[in-house]
Amino acid sequence: MKKNVLIIIIAIFFTWLGISFAFQTNKVSEQEKLIEIKESEIEELNLSLDEEVERSAQLFQENQLLLDSIQKLNEKIVQLEQKLVEKNKHINYLKGKLKRRDVAIQDLKDEIALLYRQRKLDHNKIAALEKQKAKIDKEKSKVLTNYNEELFAAKSVDKEISTHRQNIAQMQMISDITKNTKVIFEKIEGKKFKAGRTISNMKKNTSGWQHTRFKFKLQHPNHRVLLDKQFVLKVFDKESNLVLAYSENHPQHQSAINNGIPFSFDGNIVDIIHTNHQRKSAENYEIKIYVMYNGQEFELEQGSVTFIENGSFLLKS
Rounded to two decimals, what is the model's pTM? Predict the structure, then answer.
């Protein structure tokens, strides 16, 4: 009897030990899975952080380009203003010189007229005075030519200063637009055919997604600064960081800028269809909006958004 009880106790112990081991093994397995998930999340966060740091560096570089250009123009303006001061000094000097010549000529004219009123004319003296007057007239002509040249040069310098100041104002406005313009997306629709149904997913290495409709608003504290400005919309493959060309197979779309879609903002909602017939080599895509200035693109700091992640459309109508 005692032997049977002992066998039962041993059996129960090993059963408990097996269950406990299985539980611990399962618990360890779950912890390992949790660790893998956390590691994956951390990796994704690090990638996202790296992308954000890279984008911030690029935006800083673009803005720094504007700031450097503004600084150079301000330095140029200082030089031109000093040049203008010197020009104006010389112009005032020439004005005085002209005035003195005019006075001298008038004095000679008066003296010659007085001699002609005398009963007995002194022809030799009159001839000498006429010769002196002619000499002063010639000097005056040279001074006047110099004066007009300096006046024209001063006006040119003043115009150049005005142009630089206008360019600085434009650059400051572009910098303000890039920093303070918000892009509010109202609709993003992906389709295979323009008139087809909206799709929710796209697959890598296929051409099932060809058309994308972007409908959005541009907002700025001073909305009027955006009016009539030129912008460009671009779609990026996030995995290669390359632009997804706009209508690459359509020669009629020659207005595309660096594979982007140009548009002029008139204050209304922007409604654009992006077309690309290529097989897509990635499953993550984002849109970026740029403002154009002097042939260059400047990305809006609040103008980018990921709209396809792991093949799924994130923003829909």
Answer: 0.70
Two tokens, residue 196: 């087809």
Per-residue pLDDT of 64-85, as tens digits, reads 888 888 899 999 999 999 999 9
CATH of the structural domain 181-313, one choice from 2.60.40.10, 3.40.50.300, 1.20.120.1220, 3.90.550.10: 2.60.40.10
Q: Using one digit for the tens of pLDDT, what is the confidence trace for 46-61?
A: 555 555 566 666 776 7
Interval 290-303: pLDDT, tens: 999 988 899 999 99
Per-domain residue ranges for the chain?
Answer: 66-178, 181-313
Mean pLDDT (the chain) is 84
